[in-house]
């Protein structure tokens, strides 16, 4: 439906010029039109075009070729251009199925080649397709529309006056469309303006978005969590006063609050090219129209850069100004610089919005600026395309550069000094005093109205439309704010009075943004492709014109402080889009156990007389990849219930999507009226901390209390038995202590773990004590049972770890009852080594000891502990073995009868 880079439309204002070209006339047919010249509406006003008048610029169309084409449908294709212009065109007339109409998409930057999709859409709608090279205004489009009628009349053998025509366009194309329907008469019979731009849209909207992203960027995650699916809906809770005031301001000016939870990076950061729009279009146009603005911004009262406020301090803190020297210049194939290596770059350099100014060597001024992207690691500034070659020629080794972001920061406050003087723009009331006067100083020139008027072909959005008009706006649009469409509706009502209801409809679509084109994963998890809605509106306006069939009732909505809201039910909301409400047990957010089936319920309502449900799709993991499920039968409202379980922990935003077609066609790709809904869903397994949940107590007991009890009983008993066996059956082959260095030994009189830990702490052997504690509580296993996610602030139980606990529990019970009580080792020491590896003991002496592998010539200091126990002396503890690894081991000898208890001695071999 629309070119993907819709926002580029605004750039045409300052940068698009009509280039006169000499077009070869070989094999071309010139058709000279005749009639009186079209006239303007007042001096310098928009040209008023009728079916009979001649536009002097587009008076001589030339047919370059006429061919028969079979793809995408069999059609007759006429290609041509206008003499003395750069405007060419194509007309695609289907051989069969034509029903007396044509569709014409307009957009300032489009090519004259229609896509196969659009050609087929026209053919399936009974229309031929007209496509014209994009330009400023509607005049070229009108000239081709009239010429195409003449050609179609001959091709279909029908009077051209009996052919209906419909023009439609979005974003910059909506400006062309409005210019057309306010200033032409009989050229088109109906129109659809989508994602509507108005006289305050550009560059003000970019400025508003930029300020919001700049100030609120540090709170991005908080806003996403609060306003996203399953959030608490309160974006102000964790904002400071500065952030609150900025969010309130940009919300009143038209950015829908939900957008910050839906696509913060697109609206306020650079995911959709905001920074490039600000630097390449907004700043470029402000420099042309009001070059002194930047100096006033940083020096005069009433401007953010100079005001003594929290916002002013925030701006000045982020102001970057740096002098550096070029140490190397890198050139491209055209001998122009492509990058410069800089002498010094501070680490706090911004990653966008920088301008580079060249200091002329003789000190007589500067050249520039030019723009570049800086790589901090290599200290290289990569020069962007479309910079002034004269400035680039001054980039030589040793040249001085000034780098700053003065213009970028200043453009973020531009909209405050562009309060419209025209009445009705109520969103700007937040920038006005109670008496209606602007709060901040105003510039002498209002830029946005001039840009919008130029793109509209001189139109000024009077509302005095000459055809039937449907306007479609969407509620997730951060380029064309939704309340702007309401402003234009008021213009139409003021201009037409009672006739407005016979000529005009306004519809809002939900869960769609500014880009009317195919939506792919992962964006399709949260957005629908609004092209289907637009296509249905085009068909509706044609039925309205040709048959008198009233379109469905317009969307019912309200506007409060710049925010457009719609009712939750289809019967109240109306419009043409179905309404869907996705819940699980009546909630929009749920935390469930791993492996448990989740019950999803989608309540779907279709507005009266707008079609039938043809598909219900599910995206359980929020990836944007949908699967169809059966949805039963229903008329205006149905409930669809499904179950789904999850095998991985995590946070999911499950989506359900519904599709409606007007006649119930399940195969067509056109005029699909879609909507979706999402909910927040956290897969958490058994959550011992959420006792308020159903069955939480049972799961907590099984996965928390019971294992802890078993650990205490089994581990304690196991360690007592293990220690007792090791004391009476020490490791063989240790006639003398192993080579050690910085060893830690413990007076191991008692085999009871509690006394071991106490003695270790008392003697300062904290590592030994810690190892003994680990041996009892087995944290390597227990730590894997309950997992804490710091980002999500959730705790859940791990099924594999829990299963391992129970397996080890059974294994230790078995060894304790049938093997460990035997004072001998009936199965050999190897089995005990294997059991030690899998046991709860963190530092098993049998596993970790490396015996007496030491160099007898080594003369290192080591420590022996003499333990009086059954007439034996033991050296027991941690030491550093030959390989430098921490070890735990014994040695023993006959006890000295003079020993009184245990003592630590230091010997040197």
TrEMBL record:
ATP-binding in keyword set: no
Transmembrane segments: 697-720, 768-789, 801-819
Stretch forming the signal peptide: 1-28
Keywords from the UniProt entry: Membrane, Signal, Transmembrane, Transmembrane helix
Keyword match Transmembrane helix: yes
Name of protein: PKD domain-containing protein
Provenance organism: Dactylonectria estremocensis
């Amino acid at each position: 439906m629309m070119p993907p880079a819709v926002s580029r439309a605004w750039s045409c204002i300052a940068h698009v010029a009509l280039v006169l070209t000499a077009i070869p006339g070989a094999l071309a047919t010139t058709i000279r039109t005749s009639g009186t010249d079209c006239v303007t509406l007042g001096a310098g006003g928009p040209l008023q075009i009728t079916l009979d008048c001649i536009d002097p610029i587009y008076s001589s169309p030339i047919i370059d070729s006429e061919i028969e084409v079979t793809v995408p449908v069999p059609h007759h294709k006429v290609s041509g251009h206008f003499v003395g212009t750069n405007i060419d065109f194509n007309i695609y007339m289907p051989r069969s199925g034509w029903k007396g109409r044509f569709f014409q998409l307009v957009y300032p930057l489009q090519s004259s080649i229609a896509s196969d999709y659009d050609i087929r859409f026209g053919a399936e709608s009974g229309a031929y397709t007209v496509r014209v090279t994009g330009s400023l205004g509607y005049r070229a489009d009108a000239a081709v529309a009239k010429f195409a009628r003449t050609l179609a009349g001959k091709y279909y053998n029908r009077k051209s006056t009996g052919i209906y025509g419909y023009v439609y366009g979005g974003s910059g194309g909506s400006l062309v469309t409005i210019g057309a329907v306010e200033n032409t008469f009989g050229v088109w019979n109906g129109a659809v303006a989508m994602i509507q731009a108005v006289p305050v849209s550009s560059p003000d909207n970019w400025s508003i978005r930029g300020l919001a992203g700049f100030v609120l960027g540090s709170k991005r995650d908080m806003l996403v969590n609060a306003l996203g699916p399953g959030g608490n809906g309160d974006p102000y809770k964790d904002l400071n006063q500065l952030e609150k005031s900025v969010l309130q301001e940009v919300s009143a000016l038209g950015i829908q609050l939900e957008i910050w939870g839906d696509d913060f990076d697109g609206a306020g950061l650079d995911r959709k090219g905001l920074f490039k729009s600000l630097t390449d279009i907004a700043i470029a146009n402000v420099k042309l129209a009001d070059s002194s603005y930047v100096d006033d911004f940083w020096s005069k009262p009433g401007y953010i850069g100079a005001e003594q406020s929290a916002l002013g301090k925030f701006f000045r803190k982020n102001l970057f100004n740096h002098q550096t020297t070029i140490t190397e210049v890198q050139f491209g194939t055209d001998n122009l610089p492509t990058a410069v290596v800089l002498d010094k770059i501070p680490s706090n350099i911004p990653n966008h919005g920088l301008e580079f100014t060249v200091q002329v060597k003789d000190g007589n001024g500067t050249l520039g600026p030019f723009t570049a992207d800086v790589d901090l690691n290599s200290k290289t500034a990569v020069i962007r395309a479309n910079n002034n070659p004269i400035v680039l020629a001054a980039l030589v080794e040793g040249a001085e550069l000034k780098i700053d972001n003065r213009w970028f920061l200043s453009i973020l406050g531009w909209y405050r000094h562009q309060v419209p003087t025209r009445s009705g723009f109520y969103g700007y009331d937040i920038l006005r005093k109670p008496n209606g006067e602007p709060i901040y100083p105003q510039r002498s020139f209002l830029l946005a109205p001039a840009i919008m008027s130029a793109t509209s072909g001189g139109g000024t959005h009077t509302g005095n439309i000459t055809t039937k008009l449907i306007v479609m706006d969407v509620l997730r649009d951060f380029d064309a704010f939704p309340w702007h469409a309401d402003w234009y509706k008021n213009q139409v009502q003021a201009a037409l009075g009672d006739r407005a209801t016979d000529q005009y409809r306004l519809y809002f679509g939900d869960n769609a943004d500014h880009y009317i084109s195919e939506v792919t994963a992962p964006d399709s998890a949260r957005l629908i492709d609004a092209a289907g809605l637009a296509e249905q509106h085009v068909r509706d306006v044609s039925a309205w014109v040709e048959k008198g069939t009233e379109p469905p009732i317009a969307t019912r909505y309200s506007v409060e402080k710049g925010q457009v809201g719609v009712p939750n039910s289809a019967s109240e909301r109306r419009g043409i889009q179905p309404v869907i409400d996705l819940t699980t047990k009546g909630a929009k957010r749920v935390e469930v156990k791993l492996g448990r089936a989740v019950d999803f319920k989608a309540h779907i309502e279709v507005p009266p007389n707008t079609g039938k449900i043809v598909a219900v799709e599910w995206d359980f993991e929020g990836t944007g990849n949908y699967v169809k499920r059966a949805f039963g039968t229903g008329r205006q409202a149905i409930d669809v219930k499904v179950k789904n379980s999850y095998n991985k922990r995590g946070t999911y935003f499950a989506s359900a999507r519904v599709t409606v077609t007007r006649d119930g066609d399940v195969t067509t790709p056109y005029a699909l009226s879609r909507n979706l809904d999402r909910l927040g869903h956290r897969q958490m397994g058994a959550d011992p901390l959420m006792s308020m949940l159903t069955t939480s107590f049972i799961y907590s007991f099984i996965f928390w209390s019971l294992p802890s009890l078993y650990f205490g009983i089994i581990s304690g008993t196991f360690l007592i038995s293990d220690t007792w066996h090791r004391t009476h059956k020490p490791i063989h082959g240790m006639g003398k202590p192993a080579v050690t260095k910085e060893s830690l030994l413990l007076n191991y009189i008692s085999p009871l773990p509690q006394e071991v830990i106490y003695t270790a702490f008392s003697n300062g052997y904290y590592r030994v004590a810690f190892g003994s504690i680990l041996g009892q509580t087995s944290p390597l296993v227990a730590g894997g049972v309950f997992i804490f996610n710091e980002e999500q602030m959730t705790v859940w139980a791990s099924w594999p770890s829990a299963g391992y606990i129970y397996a080890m529990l059974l294994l230790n019970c078995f060894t304790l009852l049938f093997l460990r009580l035997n004072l001998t080792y009936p199965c050999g020491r190897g089995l005990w080594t294997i059991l030690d590896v899998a046991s709860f003991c963190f530092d098993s002496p049998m596993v970790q000891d490396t015996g007496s592998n030491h160099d007898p010539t080594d003369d290192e200091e080591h420590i022996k502990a003499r333990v009086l126990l059954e007439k034996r002396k033991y050296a027991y503890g941690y030491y550093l073995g030959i390989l430098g690894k921490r070890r735990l081991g014994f040695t023993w000898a006959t006890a000295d009868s003079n020993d009184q208890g245990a003592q630590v001695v230091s010997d040197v071999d």
